[in-house]
């Protein structure tokens, strides 16, 4: 629909008012110079229906003496046109030189409607357009709204959108405005190419950027939608990636986008000039501040001689040094890094210059855009406040912390001049986003079987920065619920307080003969010692009990006239056949009873464990979800015995080191170990010992490694051990023939490890076993032989055998969550170990 506009004014009106012999333009009558002698009160108005006469007259401002001159009339005409209230404005001359202003008012919009829009709701479009119901109709505004609606659709990836405005005339100078939308198909990114990249493959660079290519599963995500802002941000991500890896001269020259009508999508090409790769030649420290020794800053530098030049390490060093200088009383100290390149040796001489900066103070911190999040939640991320010295490093740290909260779509901190030259105002501009999550998760693994979870969580509860989560799990072999709450700033200190309440039930399956029920509560405190170092302190108290079917704990004997008297045929049918003469009977376990430690735990009833513990975590991974470089080390210790029924000291270390090798292949070295120490006179329970399987050496069944009950007629339960070690080397490689967005990787690996030194119960008096409620039917007269403890002795394998395996894996970072398939073949194993060559596990949120 074409729009015409009959408004006339501007400079042409000036020519008219001079009375020059020029033809008057359409819509503006000739005005003679005699009109210049008129006053405002001599202006008459025609054609107005809603706008008052005095309102129109008010746009004509008289000059000295209350007289209207040529400029006042010209300005009044332009002002009336710019109001948008009128379709037409004319100035004519009446009798006696009187000025007549004739207007045609714009209609009033009765209603605004949208038709054909399915992907974007009416409410969102209504909020975006400038035309409003009961407002003044303007064709220029309608045209602007049409373009705005089209732009909204383009931002959501629909570039084939067509928007047509329709104006429906109504009585009494009113109109209805209808925008008809043809949404078209989603316009995605069909290809992403890189030009000029020699050091890193295109496959690797696609990991760096946020934009992805469209694929069969793109309907589950939105990062394949073409967004020019995201593409521009990808340019910076590529540049930062190169700067982290020693390419100090890199330039991402352009990000070219071209629409392909045949593919109905965009082709994006990044042009890169890599330059040379540099290493750090020397690191020096200089200071122009009197009495400030620059060499004391060396311990705060993360730049090492001989390492690849890394801009992020330089920036973090600058931040740490500037903050440390502020702590020492040099509030205005500024650390400026410099670097001299040696183009022949490909090295950079890094120099940290510490100078006295301008004495500038923070006058105010203004926060804008937080409609839900409380001000104090934002301000507590700052280490500075009003009145403090302005420190750019601390401001950058606050901006990074605010982004890491994940409460906001965007965070930007800028400065404005304050009330004087030595004052600045910090402006914190925010755009909030949804922080609540509701998820239904499902998965299956060869260990736990089918599993489903429903959870609801909120990262910014009540706008106070609190975290809360409730989840319910129900599966084939595992069930339970959990409630979690985190206060990230306990008593206004940067200490996180967490509270967890949970109940878990593990059912008997093909790997264990018994079930467990656990009800626990655990408060914890988290401290961030550095960006790469964190400490967690915790207290755990939980009640645990074992459940067993009655036939696994009935203490039935098989000799003489006891509960079960086997026939020779029965004895011969066993594997291996039982020689009743040589064995003197089958003993107490003949009908498949659970192992002694299990039955003893059952007889003991519910057990209360009260423990103090801590975890120290060192993390330098480049990506926590899909790491390719860095080190992750966890060291945990738990001391049980702060009340309760159990005492022990458990220590565990787990280290993973990732390193990029060649052709996008990533190497992983995984080392782990643990030790359980007895404290005091209390025996170590079987349930407290380490149970290992594929979590230590792949190719073995859950609970398939380590000491095991050898009674051939019992359930032969895994007993666990008090010591274990494990080592694994893995190569992860992409499938280069598949699109990157598919998310598939392959792996080959070799594992080795051992679990040994069972220290749980090995004997148990029959008298104790018979007095339990479950076994009250076992009278002494039915036990043969009658000597207490004879039938309860535990025979088990406790050899320290090295288990090893090799295998291949398939890793899929799917839209349904991470999935992994492993096929491993054991090379060495214990005599009684249980193997499981294929293993699968995974889950999803949708």
Entry summary:
This protein has 846 residues and is of the alpha+beta class.
Task: Describe this protein's structure.
This protein is α+β, with helices and mostly antiparallel strands and 846 residues long. Helix content is 15%, strand content 38%. The protein is built from 14 helices and 33 strands. The protein has a 16-stranded antiparallel barrel. The chain is elongated and about 135 Å long. Mean pLDDT is 81; it is low at 1-37, 556-567, 580-590 and 766-792.
Q: What is the approximate shape?
A: elongated
Beta percentage is: 35-45%
Q: How far apart lie the N and C ends?
A: 43 Å
Assign a percent range to the helix content: 10-25%
Structural class: alpha+beta
Stretches where pLDDT is under 50 for at least 5 consecutive residues are 1-37, 556-567, 580-590, 766-792
Query: How many individual β-strands?
Result: 33
Taking the sheet with the most strands, its summary is: 16 strands, antiparallel, barrel
Q: State the helix count.
A: 14
From the structure above, extract its key features.
846 residues, alpha+beta, 16-stranded antiparallel barrel, three-stranded mixed beta sheet, 14 helices, disordered N terminus
List the helices and strands and how they pair.
Layout lengths: L10 H7 L25 E4 L6 H5 L12 H13 L3 E8 L5 E7 L2 E8 L6 H7 L10 H17 L6 E9 L3 E9 L5 E8 L6 H7 L19 H17 L6 E10 L4 E9 L5 E9 L23 H17 L5 E10 L4 E10 L4 E8 L6 H5 L12 H13 L3 E10 L5 E10 L3 E10 L3 E13 L4 E10 L2 E10 L8 E11 L8 E16 L2 E15 L20 H6 L6 H4 L12 H8 L3 E13 L10 E11 L7 E13 L5 E13 L29 E2 L13 E12 L9 E13 L9 H5 L25 E2 L5 E12 L2 E12 L9 E8 L1
Parallel strand pairs: 1-3, 4-6, 7-9, 10-12, 13-15
Antiparallel strand pairs: 2-3, 5-6, 8-9, 11-12, 14-15, 16-17, 16-33, 17-18, 18-19, 19-20, 20-21, 21-22, 22-23, 23-24, 24-25, 25-26, 26-28, 27-30, 28-29, 29-31, 31-32, 32-33
